[in-house]
Design brief:
The complex is a heterodimer of chains A (240) and B (223). Chain A is an alpha/beta fold and 240 residues long. Chain A has 7 helices and 11 strands. Chain A has one domain: 3-Layer(aba) Sandwich (Glutaconate Coenzyme A-transferase), CATH 3.40.1080.10. In chain A, strands 1, 2, 3, 4, 8, 9, 10 and 11 form an 8-stranded mixed sheet that branches. A 3-stranded antiparallel sheet of chain A has the order 5-7-6. The chains are: A alpha/beta (240), B alpha/beta (223). Chain A: Keywords: Transferase.
C-alpha cells in the first residue's frame, strides 16, 4: 500500500463544501500552509469547497493560511479557543459583521473533545469551565465531591496535517512543537490528509519514533520546502 | 497610595516561592516575567500548553525557529531534558494535577478564590485560550496582579463582576502591596509592604482581610 499522492491539488481535490475541516497547528507552528493554499486555489477556480466549519486552535493570522481562507469567503464557522493573533483582521472583520460563526472552546477542552472523537468516546466530564458562561446549557455532574461539565466529542470529515517525516503507510513524526493538535486531529477525521516535509521509504522511520501511526492517515503529499506562517507574514504575503 | 511594587518586583516575589525542580506554567504576558527571577540554585521546569516541557529563554533576533514557540506564540529555546507532546497530553498535565504551580494574571479575584482573567465583557471577539483549563489541577494556582485597577478600584473583591475563568480556584495572590492566601473562602493576609498600615491596605481591598498570625514585611529588591 502507498498513501502518497502526486501533488497538493490531488491531495485536496475531493474536499466538499459544507464539511467540518480540522486544521493542525497552533498559531503558525505546525500549520499546513501549502495544503490550505491548495484548497484556496481550488475554491478560486471552482467555488468549492465553501461553507466550511474549520476547527483549529486559532482563527488565522495575517493574510495567509486560515486567515486567507476566511478572506476568500470559504469559512462559515470557526471552532477554536483563541481567535486572536498578531493580525486577526480577517476573522475579526467577518465576526463583527455577523458573517462568520464562532464556537469558543477552552483550549484543553478542544484538545480533549478531538481526542475523544478519535477514540470513540462520545462525551466526557471536565472541571474546565464549570461555573463560567462557557458552560451555559451543558450538563454537569458531581464526582467525588467536585462538579464537572459534560463535553461532547468533536469529529471532522477531513483533517489537514503537517508532519516532518512520513512513510508510504502514513506513519508520521512531527518537528518540535509543531505536533500540538495534529495527532489528535489525524484520529478524529474521516479522511486525514498530510503534507510531510519528507516522505521516506518503508522502514525509514524507527517504529519507536512514530508519533501518529499510519492507521490514522489516508493521504500524504511531500512538501519539501514548506513555509512558515510567521515568515510569510513578515514578508507581507497575502494569499487570498 | 504612595508606594507600591513594580510588576518586576511582584514577579520576583512570586518566584521566591517556586522550589527547585517544580513543574510550573506561567500565563501569557506579565506572568512570563516570573521565569527571570528564579533564586540562584533553583531550576523550575516550565510547561507551555502547546506541548513543551523545560523550555528556556527567547532566542536572539534572527535565530527564531517558528516550530518552537510558547503559548503566547513567541519563539523559545529548549533546555537539556526538554520534551515535546501533543495537546491532549499537555492538558492532562494541567487538569491531571501534575503541575506544581500555575501563575496567572487577573482582572478580579474574589475572596472565595473565584478568578476573572479572560474577558472584560461582551464587546469584541471573545478568546479564552487555555485560561479556563489552567485554573484546574495545578497544586497551587497563584495570581500576580496590581492591587488595584488603573482607575483605582480594588481587584481583590467580595464577588467578581466580570465573566469568571474558574470557581474557587486561586490559592495565593501576589499584589503590588501584599501577599494574600485564600483559605476557607477568605483573604488571609501574609505579607504587606512595610510602612503600609493594615487600615490603608484594607481601604483599597474590596473584601475583608483576615489576620490569623504574624504579618511579614513584603520586601523586594530594587529591580
Amino acid at each position: 500500500m502507498d498513501k502518497t499522492v502526486a501533488d497538493l491539488a490531488t491531495a485536496v481535490a475531493d474536499i466538499e463544501s459544507g464539511i467540518a475541516l480540522m486544521v493542525g497547528g497552533f498559531g503558525g507552528s505546525g500549520a499546513p500552509i501549502e495544503l490550505i493554499h491548495a484548497l484556496i486555489d481550488r475554491f478560486k477556480a471552482t467555488g468549492t469547497p465553501g461553507n466550511l466549519t474549520v476547527i483549529n486552535n486559532n482563527a488565522g493570522n495575517g493574510r495567509v493560511g486560515i486567515a486567507a481562507m476566511i478572506d476568500a469567503g470559504m469559512v462559515a464557522r470557526m471552532i477554536c479557543s483563541f481567535p486572536r493573533s498578531a493580525d486577526p483582521r480577517a476573522f475579526t472583520e467577518k465576526y463583527l459583521a455577523g458573517e462568520i460563526e464562532l464556537e469558543l472552546v477552552p483550549q484543553g477542552t478542544l484538545a480533549e473533545r478531538i481526542r475523544a472523537g478519535g477514540a470513540g468516546i462520545p462525551a466526557f466530564y471536565t472541571p474546565t469551565s464549570y461555573g463560567t458562561n462557557l458552560a451555559d446549557g451543558k450538563p454537569t455532574a458531581e464526582f467525588d465531591g467536585h462538579v464537572y461539565v459534560q463535553e461532547r466529542w468533536l469529529k471532522a470529515d477531513v483533517a489537514l496535517i503537517k508532519a516532518e517525516l512520513a512513510d508510504p503507510l502514513g506513519n508520521l513524526t512531527y518537528r518540535k512543537a509543531a505536533r500540538n493538535f495534529s495527532p489528535l486531529m489525524a484520529a478524529a477525521a474521516t479522511t486525514t490528509i498530510v503534507q510531510a516535509s519528507r516522505i521516506v521509504e518503508l522502514g525509514g522511520i524507527d517504529p519507536e519514533h512514530v508519533v501518529t501511526p499510519g492507521i490514522f492517515v489516508d493521504r500524504i503529499v511531500e512538501v519539501a520546502d514548506a513555509r512558515q506562517e510567521e515568515a510569510l507574514m513578515r514578508e507581507g504575503v497575502a494569499y487570498a | 497610595m504612595s508606594q507600591k511594587l513594580s510588576n518586576a518586583q511582584i514577579a520576583w516575589r512570586a518566584a521566591q516561592d517556586i522550589t527547585d525542580g517544580a513543574y510550573v506554567n506561567l500565563g501569557i504576558g506579565f506572568p512570563e516575567m516570573v521565569a527571570k527571577f528564579q533564586p540562584p540554585g533553583r531550576q523550575a521546569i516550565f510547561h507551555t500548553e502547546n506541548g513543551v516541557l523545560n523550555f528556556g529563554e527567547a532566542p536572539a533576533d534572527g535565530e527564531e525557529d517558528w516550530d518552537l514557540i510558547n503559548a503566547g506564540k513567541k519563539a523559545i529555546t529548549l533546555k537539556p531534558g526538554a520534551a515535546f507532546f501533543h495537546h491532549a497530553d499537555s492538558f492532562a498535565m494541567v487538569r491531571g494535577g501534575h503541575l506544581d504551580v500555575a501563575i496567572l494574571g487577573a482582572y478580579e479575584v474574589a475572596e472565595n478564590g473565584d478568578l476573572a482573567n479572560w474577558s472584560t465583557g461582551p464587546k469584541g471577539v471573545p478568546a479564552v485560550g487555555g485560561a479556563m483549563d489552567l485554573v484546574h489541577g495545578a497544586k497551587r494556582v497563584a495570581v500576580i496582579t496590581d492591587h488595584m485597577t488603573k482607575d483605582g478600584r480594588p481587584k481583590l473583591v467580595k464577588h467578581c463582576t466580570l465573566p469568571l475563568t474558574g470557581v474557587g480556584c486561586v490559592t495565593r495572590v501576589y499584589t503590588s502591596l501584599a501577599v494574600i492566601d485564600i483559605e476557607d473562602a477568605r483573604f488571609v493576609l501574609r505579607e504587606k509592604l512595610p510602612g503600609l498600615s493594615l487600615t490603608d491596605l484594607q481601604a483599597v481591598t474590596g473584601a475583608e482581610l483576615v489576620v490569623t498570625g504574624d504579618i511579614a514585611d513584603l520586601n523586594c529588591p530594587e529591580i
